[in-house]
Design the sequence.
């Protein structure tokens, strides 16, 4: 049973009043050790109604018989924005058996940030905190997303409104312009009453909503505006002229005795909700009315576009997607209304509870379809979060007999938030989705089978917590399969390398059409299959000396799918021939000239030629158009046995020429 904040506060006050040095007893929310499956944190505005919907006791009223449950029996656990009983904003909570103790998220923004860090595994609330991975399942939020994105779905639960709680009769009716000027410091007196503006704490959804409603930002607030804990009239309305934004639902629930009381003392001292004169109106509209001694919402105020607001339960989008590997049936059962599926929170019993806490029930309770304007999506929240999505994977499709296999390579660009899954989708020629599948981050392929013949478009996205990558897309037709095989013999540079290709069709279909040989993105040759499905494709005789990895692709035909293979082609250096022309005799006082010609099939050799006598180099020269004439040094009298040596090049092997003799006289 949930202990009451009001009763624990009474105990604490009594201890202080009596001068006793007793510690305030620990208050669990829910009971210590009573861990539940679905943990929610965040908004002060909706904490009490979620506590009630969780089946706990709120302000002495037990809601055990109307506790919401998933089909599996799973229940929610709603942890307060501040510590029940003590009002401490520095207390910690533990939400799982054996889980970490972590700072209590105080406010809508804090709840969304804690949910974000539960997903990312980062430390909460900052780098000096603790990792809270999988410790939070949903965030309570009275505000809309703070940033763009689709990671979080804001599932509407009910309608609330932001009112302005004041103390002093001179503040009975206020305009939006007056509120704007009060909070930026331009207006300090209204109807002779000095105003003392207050504002809820940072991360409060009410704070952010109110500032937006009156056209201000945090940076534009006057320095004199005092920060208070949201929805606590006793602490805020301490003097005449006090002004503070307040959840109307919370005001109603506290004053009707449904929620723990933080406000009634201020009401006894003159605190009340001001009427707001909306733009274009001649008078003010009160947020509440009294029926049979109880406060009730004024529908016109709640539906006003400026001060009326939806309150949400924020859930990771992927966990509400029935096709996702992260789909959570328990969350779906409790929070989502779709088609014939009604959220547990939208049951008759639940909506009676919701109404009792000062909120207005709406037919869109639990909607997640973005075509409804009340449904919102937003990105991960918190400072320093890289919200970039992955780059698209590289997609390859292989179309088979009534099947389509997708294979992909992850992008080399790795985002800060890692890939969590891949989504593959198949659409028919009319654009209708034929099938979709979500796969683990480790997956690199998926096959759709049992397909009818026709044209299909397949897409793959790499997803992380921030969203989906651009689509990698491929369109192809389902036909019979073909199999391409290829061989290539080792070939010397200068000779024409050849790739012999055979394409075999299944189901007795003879392959016909075009075959292309590529290296990387460069086309080296093409050919057309003969009547037996074969072709030999000659390539350039000047391919680089190396081992080439070639792709051989069959383009397909009316009856067969495309197919491809790879083949290794080794290009070796050409074999050189060395011919020498030299005089038989030369005077020992003259220098003989030797002409050397180097040839090779299909190429003209380049490079250096050396003339040796034995192992000694006596002259060198450089080929030009495959020839060089080299002048020898003077030779001593006698017979000299010489030979030419071609040193080779990047495309031609070295070669030693035959011996020749020159007699020096």
Sequence:
């Amino acid at each position: 049973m949930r202990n009451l904040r009001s009763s624990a506060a009474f105990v604490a006050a009594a201890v202080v009043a009596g001068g006793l040095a007793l510690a305030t007893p620990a208050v669990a929310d829910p009971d210590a050790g009573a861990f539940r499956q679905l943990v929610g944190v965040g908004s002060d505005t909706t904490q009490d109604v979620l506590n009630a919907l969780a089946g706990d006791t709120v302000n002495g009223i037990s809601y055990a018989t109307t506790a919401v449950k998933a089909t599996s029996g799973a229940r929610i656990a709603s942890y307060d924005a501040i510590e029940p009983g003590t009002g401490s904003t520095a207390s910690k909570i533990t939400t799982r058996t054996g889980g970490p103790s972590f700072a209590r998220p105080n406010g809508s923004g804090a709840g969304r940030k804690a949910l974000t860090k539960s997903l990312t595994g980062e430390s909460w609330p900052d780098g000096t905190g603790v990792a809270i991975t999988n410790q939070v399942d949903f965030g309570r939020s009275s505000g809309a997303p703070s940033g763009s994105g689709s990671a979080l779905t804001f599932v509407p639960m009910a309608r609330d409104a932001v009112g302005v709680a004041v103390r002093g009769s001179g503040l009975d009716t206020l305009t939006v312009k007056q509120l704007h000027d009060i909070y930026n410091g331009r207006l300090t007196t209204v109807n002779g009453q000095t105003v003392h503006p207050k504002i809820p704490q940072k991360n409060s959804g009410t704070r952010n909503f109110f500032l937006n409603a009156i056209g201000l930002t945090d940076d534009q607030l006057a320095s004199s505006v005092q920060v208070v804990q949201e929805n606590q009239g006793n602490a805020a309305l301490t003097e005449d002229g006090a002004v503070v934004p307040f959840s109307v639902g919370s005001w109603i629930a506290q004053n009707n005795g449904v929620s723990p009381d933080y406000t009634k003392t201020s009401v006894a001292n003159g605190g009340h909700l001001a009427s707001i004169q909306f733009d274009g109106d001649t008078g003010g509209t009160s947020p509440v009315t009294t029926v049979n001694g109880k406060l009730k919402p004024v529908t016109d105020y709640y539906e006003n576009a400026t001060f009326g607001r939806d309150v949400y339960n924020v859930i990771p989008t992927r966990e509400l997607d029935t096709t996702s590997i992260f789909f959570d049936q328990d969350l779906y059962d409790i929070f989502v209304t779709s088609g014939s599926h009604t959220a547990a929170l939208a049951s008759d019993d639940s909506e009676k509870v919701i109404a009792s806490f000062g909120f207005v029930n709406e037919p869109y309770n639990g909607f997640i379809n973005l075509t409804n304007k009340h449904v919102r999506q937003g990105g991960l929240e918190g400072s320093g979060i890289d919200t970039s999505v992955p780059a698209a994977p590289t997609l390859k499709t292989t179309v088979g007999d009534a099947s389509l296999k997708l294979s992909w390579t992850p992008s080399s660009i790795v985002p800060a938030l890692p890939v969590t899954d891949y989504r593959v989708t198949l659409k028919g020629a009319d654009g209708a989705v034929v099938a979709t599948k979500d796969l683990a981050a480790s997956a690199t392929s998926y096959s759709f089978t049992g397909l009818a013949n026709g044209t299909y478009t397949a897409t793959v996205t790499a997803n992380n917590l921030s969203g989906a990558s651009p689509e990698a897309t491929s369109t192809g037709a389902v036909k019979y399969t073909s199999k391409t095989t290829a061989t290539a013999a080792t070939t010397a540079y200068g000779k024409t390398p050849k790739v012999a290709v055979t394409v075999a069709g299944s189901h007795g279909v003879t392959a016909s059409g075009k075959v292309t040989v590529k290296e990387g993105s460069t086309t080296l040759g093409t050919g057309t299959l003969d009547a037996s499905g074969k072709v030999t494709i000659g390539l350039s005789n000047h391919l680089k000396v190396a081992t080439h990895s070639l792709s051989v692709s069959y383009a397909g035909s009316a009856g067969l799918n495309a197919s491809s293979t790879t083949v290794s082609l080794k290009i070796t250096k050409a074999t050189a021939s060395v011919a020498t022309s030299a005089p038989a005799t030369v005077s020992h006082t003259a220098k003989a000239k030797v002409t050397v010609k180097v040839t090779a099939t299909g190429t003209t050799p380049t490079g250096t030629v050396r003339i040796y006598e034995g192992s000694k180099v006596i002259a060198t020269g450089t080929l030009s158009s495959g020839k060089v004439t080299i002048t020898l040094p003077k030779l001593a009298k006698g017979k000299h046995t010489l030979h030419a040596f071609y040193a080779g090049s990047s495309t031609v092997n070295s070669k030693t020429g035959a011996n020749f003799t020159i007699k020096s006289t």
Remarks:
- The longest strand covers residues 152-167.
- The longest helix spans residues 5-17.
- The radius of gyration is 41 Å.
